[in-house]
Amino acid sequence: MSRRAIVTVPKRAKRGEVIEVKTLAQHAMETGYRRTQLGAAIPRDIIRTFVCSYNGEEVFRMELHPAIAANPLIAFSLVASESGTLEFRWSGDNGYAVTETARITVV
Amino acid sequence: MNRRVFLLSGVLFAAGARATPAEMQAAMRKVLGGATPRPGKVRLEIAPLVDNGNAVPLTVTVESPMTSQDYVKAIHVFTERNPQPNVLSVRFTPRAGRASVSTRMRLADTQAVHAIAELSDGSLWSGSAEVVVTVSACLEDGSGPI
């Protein structure tokens, strides 16, 4: 299983500006409802939780269910309040855990 | 056991696994806790006609100033006819600036997608969108070797 994710955050923003954050995690999001051609159930294996923290404070959280498509795209907004680090954490079934960070400079 | 039996069992399984509007109502009640949401404020952007139900772009936006006194706490999305009624739940803080989230979802069938928003003043709002799906998600078998 590959454990990669991509985040897109503007490098610089004006203080108070609403910025767009886009994230993409590489994950099959196996629903648990599919079967192999031999009829065996394919067990569920999904990302369950996504959390974004801004300088250590949680600002956005999403719970995912099997109805989210493979390679989950999550896009949302944030107020650029201060320079610092955005941390993104994905966690899910079978110990899936990926962390990605992005720096932002607020002027 | 032959291939036909397995394929048939897969079809039956898929039919049995489908959530009904009643199950969706039950999932919504868990969020609502007996309250009734008012229609409005919640906008779902989703194509009215989709060819492929495996990855359907969805954006849910709620009208809100997103200040510390008046903001959207959460959005929950549900479907009527997917195997499970829940799609996603998001939690916002005023630091989000806008109460909006975009993702790509699976749709097993032509159906309505519903969203419920919880605001910081405790009020609940709802919105929905009808989607026609020509190729369903969840129908293909896993493509493993036989």
* Poorly predicted spans of chain A: none
CATH class descriptor of chain B? Mainly Beta
Assembly type: heterodimer
| Number of distinct beta strands of chain B | 9
Tell me the distance between the termini of chain B: 13 Å
The fourth-level CATH homologous superfamily of chain A is Immunoglobulins
List keywords for this structure.
heterodimer, A: 107 residues, mainly beta, Immunoglobulin-like, five-stranded mixed sheet, 52% strand, B: 146 residues, alpha+beta, six-stranded mixed sheet, three-stranded antiparallel sheet, 2 helices, 42% strand, globular, disordered C terminus
Overview of the structural elements:
The complex is a heterodimer of chains A (107) and B (146). With 107 residues, chain A is an all-beta fold. In chain A, 0% of the residues lie in helices and 52% in strands. Chain A has one domain (5-106): Immunoglobulins (Immunoglobulin-like). In chain A, the strands form two sheets. Chain A has a five-stranded mixed sheet with strand order 2-8-7-4-5, with no helix packed on it. In chain A, strands 1-3-6 form a three-stranded antiparallel sheet, with no helix packed on it. In chain A, a hairpin with a 2-residue loop joins strand 4 and strand 5 (57-64). The mean pLDDT of chain A is 94. Chain B has one domain (19-135): Immunoglobulin-like (Sandwich). Chain B has two helices and nine strands, in the order ααβββββββββ. Chain B has helices at 3-17, 21-32, and strands at 38-39, 42-46, 49-52, 56-62, 72-79, 86-92, 99-105, 111-119, 124-135. In chain B, strands 1, 3, 5, 6, 8 and 9 form a six-stranded mixed sheet that branches. Chain B has a three-stranded antiparallel sheet with strand order 2-4-7, with no helix packed on it. In chain B, a hairpin with a 4-residue loop joins strand 8 and strand 9 (124-135). The longest helix of chain B is centred in the N-terminal third of the chain and has 15 residues, at 3-17. The radius of gyration of chain B is 18 Å and the shape is globular.
